[in-house]
Amino acid sequence: xxxxxxxxxxxxxxxxxxxxxxxxxxxxxxxxxxxxxxxxxxxxxxxxxxxxxxxxxxxxxxxxxxxxxxxxxxxxxxxxxxxxxxxxxxxxxxxxxxxxxxxxxxxxxxxxxxxxxxxxxxxxxxxxxxxxxxxxxxxxxxxxxxxxxxxxxxxxxxxxxxxxxxxxxxxxxxxxxxxxxxxxxxxxxxxxxxxxxxxxxxxxxxxxxxxxxxxxxxxxxxxxxxxxxxxxxxxxxxxxxxxxxxxxxxxxxxxxxxxxxxxxxxxxxxxxxxxxxxxxxx
Length: 282
Fold this sequence. Notes:
The chain is mainly alpha-helical and 282 residues long. The chain has a domain at 79-272: MetI-like fold, CATH 1.10.3720.10. Helices cover 71% and strands 0% of the residues. Helix 2 crosses helix 4 (67-102), helix 4 (67-102) packs across helix 7 and helix 12 runs antiparallel to helix 13.
């Protein structure tokens, strides 16, 4: 564990700032049941559209529900969707990219299919998938994940195409090393760094897409507290109660910003070619 914290990444300001902000938001989401001042689904008409106060830290919405409680529980949904989308997209894209990059006969077939998926705007594809299957947490995760797989596959493929021409890989092939062993021992380790960076950007994109789907009414049910749902419900009374949109929108912006800062820091630390270029400029 001590050796882990000595890694150069922990000396990068972007990693520390982005990771610190993300850790705070993650802790807030985990502690939502303890921090929430009320049931996020509890309707209280007598408290409707109350401005932020000591009793209601972020005010209330049109049904008298506590915006702070709904925002804290909404963080859970957004972070869960982001983590699941990134994990599944990276896993599936890694397998596709490894096989397409190493097996030349499979490359053309798989990459044309990936190009076809990338030709469709991600948000439109997500809306279509949710509309066909019905809105649920699993459906939303799958709908957001599918457009991300081609990007991961192309990234891994580009790494594999350069690695498979290296002398040590050619030597392994000449010695009759099984394909599985070559991919796992020689090719896979070189994809870890770019995948970690790509995973952070997928998380940020997934959170925004989930919020867009909820805002458009194509995401999770309005009864489920998500940042997108809260913002969508607040637009009708925005001029009278702007806090309904301001607070969950601010949390979404800060979370996406933290993830992007973390991703930039990891890219600067884990990409040796970028470090060499920066060193040359200096």
